[in-house]
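#struct-help
A.M.: can someone run this one for me? Single chain, 284 residues.
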Amino acid sequence: MHRLHIIWNIRRIHYDIAIIAKSRWDKRFLKWCIMSGAPKVIALGVDPHPAITELVPLPAPHTEHLVQLFHRMLAPLGIQAVAGPLHLFADPTKVATLAQQYGVDNRLPILGLQISARRVLQRWPEANFIALAQMVAAMGPCQIILLWSPGAADNPTHPGDDTMAARIVAACNLPCLIPIPTRTLEELIGAMELCGRVVTSDGGAMHIAAGLGKSIVALFGDSDPVCWAPWQVPYILLAAPDHNVVNIAPLEVFQALQHLEHDGESAPLPISISTSCSAVANHG
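D.P.: on it. Structure tokens below:
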């Protein structure tokens, strides 16, 4: 009955266009487009279907960012503009409240360390975060905001990193380290807004940082850097050669931060570094 109610509500809106927002259409998503009654259905893919009125061809695999890929579906609507940057806006009141609550001084360089990652091969070890924080603190006055998803590690529905964060804070023993548990999306956005640069594994938090226009050192394990790199912000991407971020050394991340500080703020293009070699390449 609940599903029938949803279908009825969708059909009564009388949509003109339905877009399957997926890198390749499948029958489950197409079913909902058909049920919507939209006369025009736009989808990415190779195989045609009678219900898909505009089938947008796919580029060669691993050649386009997901933003560019999805942007292709605007062509049937007559939109030819190049995809622009992401824009995410933090609540100024929330940002000010967090700054006051945790004693954040925006006169100092502020680095965000976001330690949570759902995917196993994207989880950078706590020992590496400790070593990196100590290297950064040794360089001079600064503040380091430690960010994580709160909760117990053994929570079956939404594991958190309270225990790991507590161990990092205790092991670092740095006055400049400010732990901020982000219990809500609003808190994560507000805390990220306080940071100048951010170190994080690939994931939702990384794209929030990109939406806020932050400079990012992005750690990539088993996710595709071509599709999922930070979009149109200064960044350095460290890709583990064996697809496991455990093998990205703290010194590599520290050097990437220094490089980003000196060159990344004004760089028109992001800088991508693979840890399997010494080459540096630019990607648009």
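A.M.: thanks! DSSP finds ten helices and eleven strands in the chain.
D.P.: also worth noting: The radius of gyration is 21 Å.
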